[in-house]
């Protein structure tokens, strides 16, 4: 036991070239150039272990869950529930019942807006978000406000992309019912001081939802340490399948919340007179769930645990520093998002060149970046720009790939000069 504990503390030397072997898609060539995949904030590539696990599920285990007494249904149910337990451990939730499977971050936020929102938020109440939220953490609250007569309050950020926290204190009052805030911004890269935000919010007895879509893959998440009341993320951003995501919620809150959708598996009994709801987490999982998604997500978590989140964080930070330095040396390039604490996301604009042109020319070089507003139009509005080019890095990217990005940008500048 002691030996095992000690082994777990030793960080395994990180070899990016060895890691790349685990991702078959990274061998792709694009118009004769080796692929450089810098669109990891949109979705990550999948290691072979995840791909094979999903294949095994369909070849050997496919069945519906929680419904059959037959052999395959028992296996599928066991594997599905083991995935839930693995997610619980991964984010250090206290109880398995606190892990709800959803389609992704977007559905998880909509679930809270519809369920927590319609249980606890009414006319004149207030919900606090920030200026750097993804549309998924704006629109569900606007819909709720339209329906209930509640109001949205928006914490602004400064020109480095750091939240102006003094404003938060000014907004908090007895009408505040929830703070819903992004942990790491997908368009600025800012890592928000969420633990501090939770502390401030809780001193006013206000619960906090953290949008972890861009933090879960870059750092160890411990929901008990963060103290948040809800934490949401998507499987496809942590090297797992699309169509699966997670809502973590504190058990006492989830228990008080009304169901989000009605259907099979979320009930205890149904009559035309009265329906009673199932226990957590099933109360929030109506209908046949994404079984292979959950099982694939478990394989992705196993893979990340094998590499080690500390190794990932350390390597990605090194890569971010390298890329920031290289991009900063390009004249006419302006980084958008220069917070002191950042995840491996570099948004930038080139003087007089539209980001879509940048993206198209980079694609000809085999370099995949995202261009546009990144579903954060208020962030673009803040900087009075229509769009940015965004390179988002992963632990399977290399410094040579960053150098290719720099060469690609220089080519773009040459074409337009
Ligand atoms: N951002 C990006 O390219 P879904 O689509 O439900 O898996 O995740 C939504 C979402 C919510 N919050 C944040 C902070 C996000 O970054 C995202 C997804 C992708 O930046 C696609 S728009």
Task: Note the main attributes of this structure.
2 domains; alpha/beta; four-stranded antiparallel β-sheet; 15 helices; Aspartate Aminotransferase, domain 2; binds ligand C6P; seven-stranded mixed β-sheet; single chain; about 425 residues; Aspartate Aminotransferase, domain 1; 17 strands
Description of the structure:
The structure is a single chain. This protein has 417 residues and is of the alpha/beta class. It has 2 domains: 16-46 and 308-416, Aspartate Aminotransferase, domain 1, CATH 3.90.1150.10; 51-305, Type I PLP-dependent aspartate aminotransferase-like (Major domain) (Aspartate Aminotransferase, domain 2, 3-Layer(aba) Sandwich), CATH 3.40.640. 41% of the residues lie in helices and 16% in strands. The chain has 15 helices and 17 strands. The protein has helices at 2-9, 16-20, 48-61, 71-91, 105-120, 139-148, 165-171, 194-203, 223-226, 251-256, 291-307, 309-328, 355-364, 377-383, 399-416; strands spanning 29-30, 33-34, 36-37, 99-102, 126-130, 151-155, 176-182, 208-211, 230-234, 245-249, 267-270, 275-277, 333-336, 345-350, 367-368, 370-372, 388-392. The strands form 5 sheets. Strands 4-10-9-8-7-5-6 form a 7-stranded mixed sheet, with helices on both faces. A 4-stranded antiparallel sheet has the order 13-14-17-16, with helices on one face. Helix 3 runs antiparallel to helix 11 and helix 13 (355-364) packs across helix 15. The radius of gyration is 22 Å and the shape is globular. The termini are far apart. Ligand C6P binds at residues 41-42, 104-106, 134, 136, 182, 186, 211, 213-214, 234, 370, 374-375. Ligand C6P is lined by residues 41-42, 104-106, 134, 136, 182, 186, 211, 213-214, 234, 370, 374-375.
């Amino acid at each position: 036991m002691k030996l095992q504990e000690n082994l777990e503390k030793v960080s395994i030397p990180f070899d990016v070239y060895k890691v790349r072997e685990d991702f078959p898609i990274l061998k792709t060539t694009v118009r004769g150039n080796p692929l450089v995949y810098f669109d990891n904030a949109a979705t990550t590539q999948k290691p072979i272990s995840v791909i094979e696990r999903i294949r095994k599920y369909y070849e050997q285990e496919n069945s519906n869950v929680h419904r059959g007494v037959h052999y395959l249904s028992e296996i599928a149910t066991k594997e599905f529930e083991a995935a839930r337990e693995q997610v619980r451990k991964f984010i250090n939730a206290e109880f398995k019942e606190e892990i709800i499977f959803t389609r992704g971050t977007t559905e998880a936020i909509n679930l809270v807006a519809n369920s927590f929102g319609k249980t606890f938020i009414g006319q004149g109440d207030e919900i606090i978000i920030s200026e750097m939220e993804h549309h998924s953490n704006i629109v569900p609250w606007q819909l709720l406000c339209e329906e209930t007569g509640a109001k949205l309050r928006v914490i602004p950020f400064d020109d480095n992309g750091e939240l102006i926290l003094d404003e938060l204190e000014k907004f908090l009052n007895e009408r505040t019912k929830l703070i819903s805030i992004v942990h790491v911004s997908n368009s600025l890269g800012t890592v928000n001081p969420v633990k501090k935000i939770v502390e401030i919010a809780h001193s006013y007895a206000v619960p906090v939802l953290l949008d972890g879509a861009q933090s879960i893959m870059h750092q160890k998440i411990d929901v008990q340490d963060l103290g948040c009341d809800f934490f949401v993320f998507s499987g496809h951003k942590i090297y797992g399948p699309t169509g699966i995501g997670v809502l973590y919620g504190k058990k006492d809150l989830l228990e008080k919340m009304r169901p989000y959708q009605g259907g099979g598996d979320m009930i205890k009994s149904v009559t035309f007179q009265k329906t009673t709801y199932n226990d957590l987490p099933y109360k929030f999982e109506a209908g046949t769930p994404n079984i292979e998604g959950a099982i694939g997500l478990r394989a992705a978590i196993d893979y990340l645990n094998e590499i080690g989140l500390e190794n990932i964080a350390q390597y990605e930070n090194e890569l971010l520093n390298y890329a920031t330095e290289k991009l900063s040396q390009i004249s006419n390039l302006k980084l958008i998002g220069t917070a002191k604490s950042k995840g491996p996301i570099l948004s930038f604009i080139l003087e007089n060149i539209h980001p879509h042109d940048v993206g198209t020319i980079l694609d000809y070089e085999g370099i995949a970046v995202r261009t546009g507003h990144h579903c954060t139009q208020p962030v673009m509005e803040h900087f009075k720009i229509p769009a940015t080019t965004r390179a988002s890095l992963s632990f399977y990217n290399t410094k040579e790939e960053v150098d290719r990005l720099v060469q690609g940008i220089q080519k773009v500048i040459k074409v337009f000069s």
